[in-house]
């Protein structure tokens, strides 16, 4: 990228302009999605500012703690959840919200109701907050088909029914990655403008990567295909070079790197957690949607991740996602295991 030229760019593609351009392809569209997205973007900007200030403002304490002024502090993830719930409800475009922070789904009151269902993790990777490691917001969007009274079944849908998905990473810069089902685009927040600017158009994941990303501390409890795959990454028998291991332990950051550099991110099942750790609706689905839209794959160990039909809103699933060829290898190992039985 030519940074000098970039500093003088006068034709900036903001995320709103980008989505309005997309919307103009559909003359019947009433702009509801653009309005919904602008409320998500507002939530991301708020959380970004709060994350940046967290160390200074001591926002990182436990919920219920008091600060030096004696005011009650809200934990950053609790605060982020409140911001997103309020922004989404006030958009007037949502009917059901499922948040990682809330045990029950929120059904929006009739007067403020729209047709979109938003599933989200307002601040994923929260165990990393206190040490300043990148964290993020993940979201997926469904739409109810007709004017029926919304029920949980409207969100207990396979990921392939999502209309859009994305994440915002709060790292050295604040980056929002979005797919509305026609490829993947990345936008970086320009703090001086307060706008997300298109910086990563049409992201395509490399077909094969050189990095694997997994919590190897769980290795003793892995099943055979996962163990074999990781062994192959470290000791390839086909003459190729071993892969590098990178694991941040913050899904948004690990997936973002995987999307840009290629490779594979895995959070497999193990003996202690037969369904893995990551949540289907607001972690596995949105990230799988983005991976497929960028030309990669996402697999649960049994099936294409986006085909999964969740039965509960906080359900978990094992996940293997990333470069097409790398995920293909793990699929082959699981297929061989089933055949061998
Ligand atoms: P965290 O526990 O910090 O909230 O789902 C949550 C998550 O982070 C993901 O962001 C991350 O990929 C994963 O858990 C890390 O889990 P391990 O610590 O078990 O590796």
UniProtKB/TrEMBL annotation:
InterPro entries: FBPase_C_dom, FBPase_class-1, FBPase_N, FBPtase, Fructose_bisphosphatase_AS. It is found in: Cytoplasm. CDD domains: FBPase. Belongs to the FBPase class 1 family. Residues 205-334 form the Fructose-1-6-bisphosphatase class 1 C-terminal domain. It is an enzyme of class 3 (hydrolase). One of its GO terms (cellular component) is cytosol. This is Fructose-1,6-bisphosphatase, cytosolic. It comes from Hibiscus trionum (Flower of an hour). Keywords: Carbohydrate metabolism, Cytoplasm, Hydrolase, Magnesium, Metal-binding. The keyword Cell division does not apply. It comes from the Eukaryota. GO terms for molecular function: fructose 1,6-bisphosphate 1-phosphatase activity; metal ion binding. Its cofactor is Mg(2+). The keyword Transmembrane does not apply. Residues 13-201 form the Fructose-1-6-bisphosphatase class I N-terminal domain. GO terms for biological process: fructose 1,6-bisphosphate metabolic process; fructose 6-phosphate metabolic process; fructose metabolic process; gluconeogenesis; photosynthesis; sucrose biosynthetic process. Its EC number is 3.1.3.11. NCBIfam families: PRK09293.1-1, PRK09293.1-3. It catalyses: beta-D-fructose 1,6-bisphosphate + H2O = beta-D-fructose 6-phosphate + phosphate.
């Amino acid at each position: 990228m030519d940074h000098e030229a970039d500093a003088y760019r006068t034709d900036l593609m903001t995320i709103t302009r980008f989505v309005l351009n997309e919307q103009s392809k559909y003359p019947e569209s009433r702009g509801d999605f653009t309005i919904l997205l602008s409320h998500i973007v507002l939530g991301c900007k708020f959380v970004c500012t709060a994350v940046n200030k967290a160390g200074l403002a001591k926002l990182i304490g436990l919920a219920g703690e008091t600060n030096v002024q004696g005011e009650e502090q809200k934990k950053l993830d609790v605060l982020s959840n409140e911001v997103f719930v309020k922004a989404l409800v006030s958009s007037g475009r949502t009917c059901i919200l499922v948040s990682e922070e809330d045990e029950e789904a929120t059904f929006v009151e009739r007067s403020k109701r729209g047709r979109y269902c938003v599933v989200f993790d307002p601040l994923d990777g929260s165990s990393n907050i206190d040490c300043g490691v990148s964290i993020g917001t993940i979201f997926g969007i469904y739409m109810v088909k007709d004017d029926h009274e919304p029920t949980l079944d409207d969100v207990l849908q396979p990921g392939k029914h999502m209309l859009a998905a994305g994440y915002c990473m709060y790292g050295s810069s604040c980056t929002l990655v979005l797919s509305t089902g026609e490829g993947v685009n990345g936008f970086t927040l320009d703090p001086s403008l307060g706008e997300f600017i298109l910086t990563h158009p049409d992201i395509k994941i490399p077909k094969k990567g050189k990095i694997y990303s997994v919590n190897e501390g769980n290795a003793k409890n892995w099943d055979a295909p996962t163990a074999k795959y990781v062994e192959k990454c470290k000791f390839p028998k086909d003459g190729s070079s071993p892969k590098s291991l990178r694991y941040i332990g913050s899904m948004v950051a690990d997936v973002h790197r995987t999307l840009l550099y290629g490779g594979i991110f895995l959070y497999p099942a193990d003996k202690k957690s037969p369904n893995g750790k990551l949540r289907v609706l607001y972690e596995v689905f949105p990230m799988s949607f983005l991976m497929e839209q960028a030309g990669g794959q996402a697999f649960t160990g049994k099936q294409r991740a986006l085909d999964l039909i969740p039965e509960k809103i906080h359900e978990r699933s094992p996940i293997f996602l990333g470069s097409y060829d790398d995920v293909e290898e793990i699929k082959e190992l699981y297929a061989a295991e089933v055949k061998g039985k």
